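Researcher: Re-running this chain for the archive, since the previous output was lost when a drive failed. Same request as before.
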Amino acid sequence: MEVYVVRPPKPRYALHAMLFLATIFTTLVVGARMEFNFLHNLPVFSLNDDALPLFPVRWALAQPSRVLLGIPFASTLMLILLAHEMGHYLCCRYYGVYATLPFFIPAPTLIGTLGAFIRIRSPIRSRTALFDIGIAGPIAGFVVALAVLAFAMPHSKVITIPSASSDIQLGYPLVFRVIWAIIPTATLHSSRALHSVYFPPTVIAAWVG
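Model: Regenerated structure tokens:
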């Protein structure tokens, strides 16, 4: 009787790094637009021809220092995505399941990415392992997003002019309403309706994550 041992393929570190860096760039570009709009009381997402495009790469590269405006959004979103995928990955390691490192997906979208994923390359041999691996990612990402919300929401500002209203509105999940009701802030009243508040890009990153 012959026994064959299947060896997992070698990790493609270069590909992981390339996609990670590319996603950092695309989220920086989008984040720069969001931060610029936030600082100037302009809509976060606007379809107006006079506004910045949704993926303003030419605008950002015309003055490279503008890209730095995207650091808060990009770092927050990348951290949440990384926490989510590493939750899956580390749980796979715990159960002896072979999985790749995260693949990030850069894209010229509203948020600069299509997310991230890992590939599982060996069988999951129990329902417990399947459940734990599946739930570990969302829990890890949620914990990071929750911390971001608690820190970033007090830095929001009240919409005082109609021009700050966005053409694309995001719904607010229950966790937003709970945190908004309990956070201490000297500049905003927690009873103020969420739709009348202008959230910074880091809050949007937490919403996405």
